[in-house]
Amino acid sequence: MVNEPGKTPDTMDKKGITRRKFILGTILVAIAGALGSLFSLLKVLAPSKKGSGYVSTISPGDVLVYATGSKIGMEIKASSMNAGDAELVYPKGKSSNPANLVQVIKLSEQDFKAPTNVQLTDKGFVAYSAICTHLGCTVSWVKNQNSPDASYTECFCHNSIFNPSRGDLVEGGPAPIPLAQIGVRVNNDDTLSFTSDFTGPIGPQV
Ligand code: FES
SS in 3 state form for the chain? Predict the structure, then answer.
């Protein structure tokens, strides 16, 4: 090996190492930049799981019809429900959108407590989204025969429990937020209709 004039092998090694470090650093910065761009692109392309796909098309004035059972599609009569009863319903003519599935419940008016929006209730009727805010199962009604107002909503997929007289607050299980309330009223012809949009997000929120 021939030394360059005025430079020792030690000096040249240090310069060589510095150059390699510089090139390596440049490559790492370029890779990090490329990964950052790729990550940003994937974030845009990937659908958000949170509440994805659950967009209700319910409008004020839509009449409630049975979503299940032998009366499916028929208008619900307010007089057919007693305190402690609940039904799964759709807005008439809009059953093809699962985000429109609602649980309408009859309780005693005096049992409603905050955060229930009593302005959105009528004659003891209150309504909430029937799509569990955990992973999107349809909720069920657990009727207390001895004390109808102690009845509650449960999602049997992972046992989330909601309190219908308190704005469907979560009282157990993994559901992260209450089931959103929606306005309901009793019409002169004894049918029920919606009076508002949902008060909060519907569908899975995790
Ligand atoms: S989907 Fe309802 S508790 Fe999990």
Answer: CCCCCCCCHHHHHHHHHHHHHHHHHHHHHHHHHHHHHHHHHHHHHCCCCCCCCCCCCCCCCCEEEECCCCCCCCECEHHHCCCCCEEEEEECCCCCCHHHCEEEEECCHHHCCCCCCHHHCECCEEEEECECCCCCCECEEECCCCCHHHCEEEECCCCEEEEHHHCCEEEECCCCCCCCEEEEEECCCCEEEEEEEECCCCCCCC
- For residue 81 and ligand 1, the question of a CB distance below 6 A is answered with no
Distance (angstroms) between ligand 1 centre and the Cα of 22 equals: 54
CATH code of residue 157: 2.102.10.10
For residue 20, how far is its CA from the centre of ligand 1 (angstroms)?
56
Number of folded domains in the chain?
2
What is the tens place of the pLDDT at every residue in 154-194? 999 999 999 999 999 999 999 999 999 999 999 999 999 99
